[in-house]
Amino acid sequence: MAGNIFGQMFRITTWGESHGRAVGVVVDGLPAGLPFSESEIQKELDRRRPGQSDVSTARNEADRVEILSGIFEGISTGTPISMLVWNSDAQSSSYDAIKNTPRPGHADFTYMARYGIRDHRGGGRSSARETAGRVAGGALAKLLLSRFGIRIAGHVLELGGIRANPLSFEEILENVEKTPVRCADLAAAEKMLEKVTALRQEGDSIGGIVEIIVKGVPAGLGEPVFDRLDADLAKALMSIPAVKGFEIGAGFEAARMRGSEMNDPFRIEDGEITCTGNNAGGVLGGISTGLDIVCRAAVKPTPSISKLQQTVDLTTRENAEISIKGRHDPTIPPRMVPVAEAMVALVLADHMLRSGFINPGTLLE
Amino acid sequence: MAGNIFGQMFRITTWGESHGRAVGVVVDGLPAGLPFSESEIQKELDRRRPGQSDVSTARNEADRVEILSGIFEGISTGTPISMLVWNSDAQSSSYDAIKNTPRPGHADFTYMARYGIRDHRGGGRSSARETAGRVAGGALAKLLLSRFGIRIAGHVLELGGIRANPLSFEEILENVEKTPVRCADLAAAEKMLEKVTALRQEGDSIGGIVEIIVKGVPAGLGEPVFDRLDADLAKALMSIPAVKGFEIGAGFEAARMRGSEMNDPFRIEDGEITCTGNNAGGVLGGISTGLDIVCRAAVKPTPSISKLQQTVDLTTRENAEISIKGRHDPTIPPRMVPVAEAMVALVLADHMLRSGFINPGTLLE
Amino acid sequence: MAGNIFGQMFRITTWGESHGRAVGVVVDGLPAGLPFSESEIQKELDRRRPGQSDVSTARNEADRVEILSGIFEGISTGTPISMLVWNSDAQSSSYDAIKNTPRPGHADFTYMARYGIRDHRGGGRSSARETAGRVAGGALAKLLLSRFGIRIAGHVLELGGIRANPLSFEEILENVEKTPVRCADLAAAEKMLEKVTALRQEGDSIGGIVEIIVKGVPAGLGEPVFDRLDADLAKALMSIPAVKGFEIGAGFEAARMRGSEMNDPFRIEDGEITCTGNNAGGVLGGISTGLDIVCRAAVKPTPSISKLQQTVDLTTRENAEISIKGRHDPTIPPRMVPVAEAMVALVLADHMLRSGFINPGTLLE
Amino acid sequence: MAGNIFGQMFRITTWGESHGRAVGVVVDGLPAGLPFSESEIQKELDRRRPGQSDVSTARNEADRVEILSGIFEGISTGTPISMLVWNSDAQSSSYDAIKNTPRPGHADFTYMARYGIRDHRGGGRSSARETAGRVAGGALAKLLLSRFGIRIAGHVLELGGIRANPLSFEEILENVEKTPVRCADLAAAEKMLEKVTALRQEGDSIGGIVEIIVKGVPAGLGEPVFDRLDADLAKALMSIPAVKGFEIGAGFEAARMRGSEMNDPFRIEDGEITCTGNNAGGVLGGISTGLDIVCRAAVKPTPSISKLQQTVDLTTRENAEISIKGRHDPTIPPRMVPVAEAMVALVLADHMLRSGFINPGTLLE
Fold first, then answer.
1. Helix (H, G, I), strand (E, B) or coil at B337
2. Which of C68, B13, B103 is nearest to A227 (CA)?
């Protein structure tokens, strides 16, 4: 109820603050019988890790995941998997300046309104560092899904108004990690990088759009009427810090289309029923169609900018100004890609279990 | 788990099919002590009712709500409120044609993939008629919220590419019911009406955007990190049939903005902390800021069109064609307005209880 | 959260008051593909119905169940099943006397403490009439379980201190409906009947013990560590009005046993692993062993007695006296048997789905 | 859904195995503003710790709790509190003997039936060591409750058939920690100790009854109809390993009582409504009456005994024998007392939040 638990049958609980002792996750509902190891979790965490390039912060986080439970001789036992990452690089003092002056666009003010107290160091619980737990949990979800032929590819579709050309699923997978902006259209990526670099020099930031594509989802996944697959995906992506919009398939474009354009015709291909278009984005009536799931998240610009901004002083209740120091990502989408993939994986693993495509008992024969 | 229950503390369960005996809702979690009557529920249901104009179907539904429990001498008792609406106008035979040929853009195919059986008459459970239960439950949520100064206004912001000019909350409330398209900018409404009428004659349909604005929400509402107010609003609106996208505040525009544009500055006004802009749409870090909540749903065009469409025959597994008969709304947004308001009200009532702004015990002194 | 919803994957919501318009239930989670009809629900409701003999009240309830949704051509569709029973025999005026004088042993006082208002007629929501919804929902659970070879037998094991001799599962099934006290040991039943009749004449009442035995539960059902099968059974039976205790297997006797007596030895029989005793009552570590589940509920005497009792006046806040008029069951266990069976069936259906023994998708091939 | 999460608004997730790296808990829902420190958690863990006397195992567990999140400058922030205890004393090799021969009365067999794999070392997840997480979470619940005047006292009421004489709440609190059997009637404690010592020498074990009494619970706590306070208490205590029965107030005795004996009369005392007896055990109709909550758990004898027992070999599927080596508590109730207190505290904290007696927002002014 307090909101730190996500999912029904594949369920994660994340915990931890930016400058507390550690951040972590407990995964409840991974079926017994899945082989995994720290390296598979670490791989995903490394993608989320900051300090990888000029478009992400230089905080030096080792971020080594430790698995504390739920695994025996390299195989999941069906009991909860507890994982954590210690916080090593916590220079709290640099945050004293923001203790009483809420940063515009940040959760500083609303956390005070909600709780009357907050760990202000690095944003505390509202820091994107919390997403490390999601990525660790999502790594297990991905691994589980891969056993059932489901693959997920995330990429930056648009950054600072520069939009990537359409690419195939395999092209995205191949190219996305080749550039720090995680845009698989490498020409567009170049331009994005230039734009981001220029903005960083101005002390400003920029937003973008992350797209997630999922291949191999069987038809018949989703729980009408409220726990529709697309509604749960929307909640999942909207729960990531800085996301201000969600769409699936034609999305907002659908608002301007005619029925005769929008409706994906059904056809028989190789004896199977399929659609000759995918404006639906892989979901009709809240249930998967068997086509690719294609959804997007609109990401606002990084709120932490060095430009002078107006704010207030919470103690004196007078107007004030703030210039946020330290190195901050000038744009969020590149680092959000693995987080968004994780959230989509969590929703799909949950619904694969809920709809009976994966047996919650055990994967062992 | 099967997905027909929505909310945590203010919780509704809807049930019923388009051509079954009735549709209804059970509301669990309305605090004791709220006076209400059937007329307040009926008022909202009447707004959702079809057959009100050329832009909505002519099905003659009396749709009289009956309250079966949870009320004593006109006041809620804290026990579940069961409400139903009988299905009176059910001409099932007219749906025989679609039994084996799934309508493009509809849930016919996916329901068969999910359940292996479906009540095909009028779309069965996937029919928009299911939303009557949501509107009835939402009417109670609205009533509860109004006791705490929270008011909700929904309107059609865009239809067929025609966009309304910005209007104030009060202007929207005043004008929205004056036109069948529920667009408060009456000049734009005129053009929308023309476009919709033309499309109907072509046997086609069109999409649009519904916007919901909420006034009076206190700062501090929402449960990080997963049950953020905006994430729950996204799920709520995405769970409405035909919605393909959701955004809050600047929404998808935020993806093209700079941090220095997007961030809403904090200022002291009349001794209170507020923001001088509302790109956030009333939510920062998943928690309400105290400013208006402003969110939008992208609605696809009505999938039921009389134009000939390609489909398949589920029994013969051969390609087929379909032309959907009967009168159908050529556009969904106008009738969706009260449904979207209801879903937003349900989320807010739930979070007002979850965050402790409304005591779940009793409203009585 | 408000407590009227039970179960996770097989989930019921009950609603309704004793003297409201109706009582009912919505079942969410019954897989598609189960054939059923009103007669199978009615059969269980008839067993719960009062007025069947001297040991139950004479209120004339027709209690005809109506199924309003979730079924198409006699088969479940996977959508919610809404069922109701109209309240026909509601003589509210006879309850005016108890409006302000809470009946000892009843929920009158605590409902006022909790809600500040209550429908006092016939106990309102706290009336045993609410259990009609449970029995209707449980009838579907039983039907589902029977498809998987699981059978449930309930009986009165003890009444007024008279204990039945041990009987086999089949003997219980055969005899239990032969006597109004629902004790399968017919000699003991005779004595129970005498005792109850004598107490009724004194204006008093008596308690007893209901036992439920389940055959055919596979080994491996239950979710450690909190949602153990026995913990969920305990909650299920303790949620029935008038139950004050629960035990499984050796139960309270286990508190006086040695480990060497209590532990059920494992043995190979016909190549299968089994136990040569069942002190565990079919559950070890919260998971079913494959042996019969045997559990019991201690039922207090009917609180409604005609003997003069001490109470208070809620309005004047002075001491008062009360003698409860009308015909009331002098003992609850006989009528509780079908309710307890229903609750056990609901728990088992839920866990069969949760543990993957029943596929939540569809029962159809 | 996988069963490792308990509670609705005050919610804990426990994780960890007996011989894994650590055991722990995440508490979600503790309101902001509660001062606490590791010492208050440690105090409760120390009570649960083994090796304190002849009646508990000699395993040397330091069991130092570490708080990893959710606290800032000594005060809860409203975010999840993650706590863990490292497993230091893990001699896994001593458990090789039981890998393939399930111990009678243990969960070894059922875990294999459920998951197809298990961490057999020390019982893995089914070990009582898991309850360390409950005790740590319960310590926070207790602390929260104490702010609202609610106090909890647990004690061993009966052990090996020896029953303590009735004592007052204050006497129990004063005496219970004076003897290793945690029986506040010190004369009875002496006899229990003798009995347990004798049984240990025989290589056998014995059961008993733990009683929990709660003072200061306001009237009006509990959520009919399913989430009754007593139903949730039953689930809570039945979820503790080795518990086979639960009762509240008169409990199983109620089954033999008359209504005129059982019903607690209402009276006015000092202007307040109260009862002149407490056969109800503080709960009527699932809602607290304001009197003491009195409930009991029947605990079976320790299943680990050195006496030779019959079992089977899971690999050869042949009959086998087992004698369980190592030091094991010859009786469970004394060490269960703090665990049972924790579970009761968790239920009460949850319901205090659910019913609105504690505001979930913040405890700060």
1. helix
2. B13
Cα gap D153→B198, rounded to integer Å: 76
| Other Cβ atoms within 10 Å of B318 Cβ, number | 9
The residue among C312, C296, A113, A228 whose CA lies nearest residue D244 is C296
Rounded Cα–Cα distance for residues C174 and C191 (Å): 19
Q: What angle do CA B134, B136, B141 make, to 5 degrees?
A: 85
Partner residue facing C361 (CB), from A1, A356, A360: A356
Q: What is the CA radius of gyration of chain D?
A: 21
Distance CA(A87)–CA(B130), nearest Å, equals 49
- Phi and psi dihedrals of A195, rounded to 5? -60, -45
How far is it, in rounded angstroms, from Cα C362 to Cα C170? 31
Amino acid at C23: V
Q: What is the pLDDT of residues D237-280, one digit of tens each?
A: 999 999 999 999 999 999 999 999 999 999 999 999 999 999 99
Q: Which residue has the tokens 């550039």?
A: A179
- Which residues are A311's β-sheet partners? A320
Arithmetic mean of pLDDT, C103-130: 95
| Burial of residue C96, with CB atoms counted within 10 A of its CB: 0-12 exposed, 13-18 middle, 19 or more buried | exposed
Q: Which residues pair with D32 in a beta bridge?
A: D362
Q: Does C314 touch chain B (CB under 8 A)?
A: no
Residue C56: pLDDT band (50, 70, 90) is low
Rounded CA-CA distance C120/B72 in Å is 9
Q: Which residues contact B134 (CB under 8 A, 6 or more apart)?
A: B6, B12, B14, B25, B339, B342, B343, B346
Structural contact between residues C212 and C153, judged by C-beta atoms closer than 8 angstroms: yes
- Indicate the SS3 state at residue B144: helix
Domains and CATH numbers, chain C: 5-354 (3.60.150.10)
Give the Cα separation of A229 and B291 in Å (integer).
Answer: 31
Cis peptide leading into C23, omega within 30 of 0?
A: no
CB atoms C251 and D244 under 8 Å: yes
Stretch (H or E) spanning B16: strand B11-16
Half-sphere exposure at residue A207, Cβ-oriented, CA atoms within 13 angstroms? 27
Q: Does A10 touch chain B (CB under 8 A)?
A: no
Give the number of beta-carbon pairs within 8 Å between B and D.
20
Q: Could you tell me if the ipTM is greater than 0.95?
A: yes
Half-sphere exposure (Cβ direction) of B304: Cα atoms closer than 13 Å: 20
Distances in Å between the Cα of C236 and the Cα atoms of B170, D235, D343 are 50, 9, 18
**Which positions 33-72 of D are in contact with A (Cβ < 8 Å)?**
33, 66-70, 72
Over 60: is that where the pLDDT of C158 sits? yes
Is B259–A102 a contact, with Cβ atoms under 8 angstroms apart? no
Two structure tokens written together for C80: 């919610």
Find out whether the peptide bond into C176 is cis, omega within 30 degrees of 0.
no
Rounded to two decimals, the pTM is 0.97
Alpha-carbon dihedral of residues D235, D241, D247, D252, nearest 10 degrees? 130
